[in-house]
């Protein structure tokens, strides 16, 4: 028996062997020392690889879980914040029902009044029928309120309130505003997710929410008018944008792509049903996708799939919105996108700059609305103080010029890389980035002209700025242009993508968090005793069949708080109602008592309400007071030099009727007044002697 000893890092091993025939050993008979340690390493590699894969999967899952938790928590906290702030601002729970309803002003009062009507109806079907054949709101007019005012949110809210048994737990008004506040939570959650998808880090989502809340005066109108259609609709649009952002990503798997497509389809249709102006906003989105597809920066099939969603939603909306012809003539259905874009911008700007070029009261009155004015300096100052505007500008410039580089490469016939890495520094090659750049430029261009559109643009300013400062690709793109050599650009980009948003977040926390806490601790009060007294008098003294006339905003409050019939409503999408508004507003013009009487009786008016705030209006923009617009339309006064002056032989009606002399007392009898309102009964037996 022979022995051989092998020594290695694992120790010493002895082998025994026996030679055949007792002769000399052959090569294949002697065992060799095998490199056992090396063999052991090779055997352990699959195990180590599985461990590494499990670690990567766990890390990815933890990142997604924490991000989703942060997104949902942000939305819930924002909804709770709105609820607490609303309670503190109006002292809502300590008020009577009438005082609560007065907080709904203008067109908001109309929307909530129909929600109340649905709850009073004996059945849902009967309630819908009464709304679609409504003759108890506007005198001498039967309207389809569901179609004209997009009352689908109220229909859904009333069904949920009764179907869930909430009528035994919570008051209708709290259920209604609770749904709206919940949707606002979904709104900021969707913005969070969009910024997260673009940057790859949920830190960008946190920064988006922080900027959104800090600049909420310019990002939302939820504080001023809860039932507005945009407050119901924009959360669904934000979900659609988030789904579209994910859908456009190049590295999305099949299941993720299918989920984004379904979410985008559902949110697009819901958005279209909630807001009558939704298809205009989708038109801007379609233009962005059209430009994205025109430069072959994304596969055309994805863009065309989005077009199919538009078409399906339009036709389905047409059928369910009582054959709404506005959807069929929507720019979304037009194939000539460039022509429609030019026409849209031309029309928008010409309304905008046509003020005082026409004497038409309705046109000038609409253009004088605050939402159609150019943004004030305070708007840009607020965005700058919260640091969102400077960072947005930086991010937009980098993304825009990077996008131009990609376009020029495509024009010159250079191929684009299928997979863009961080080292490439080409953020403009990502399709979802190109879409958002084009979209925000279009929205921003309109917001620079019409202030009301800032509520569409500013949330995406917050989202795009947060995405940019948290994106290593954006910093890497900048470093590529600067040809940074002293420090490794990839390492510096990764550091800045974490350090910059952290510094911004800490500074925002220090500057604005105390203000938010102060808002929640301060008790505010909505005090309007004159309006409360007016509504109380109407409910106690006026006949049930009485018809009231006055400003559209006041008529909306009367419809909500009393249920009495009115002559006009604060709605701007119906030509007949706009004409009625102009006619009723003549009570503030220099017209005769007989002219005013004929106008009012043509609408079967029983009571006229004159508002002292409109009659003696002094503080608005020059040429935009109601009485100024009426004088221009009626040719009774001229503002500019070189025009002829035309004098009226009658005094201003709202002043003259208060004096109680003939012929005004022949037509109108004052039956109630306080510091703000004067109520006159329209006489049925008239002496026409002046």
From TrEMBL:
| Annotated PANTHER family | C-MANNOSYLTRANSFERASE DPY19L4-RELATED, DPY-19-LIKE 1, LIKE (H. SAPIENS)
Membrane disposition: Multi-pass membrane protein
Leader peptide range in chain numbering: none
The ranges of region (Disordered) come to: 22-44
Record Pfam families: Dpy19
- Transmembrane stretches, by residue range? 64-85, 173-190, 196-214, 303-320, 332-355, 389-408, 433-450, 456-478, 490-509
The family classification in the record reads:
Belongs to the dpy-19 family.
> Where in or outside the cell is it found?
Membrane
Protein's name in the database = Dpy-19 like 4
Molecular function (Gene Ontology), one example: mannosyltransferase activity
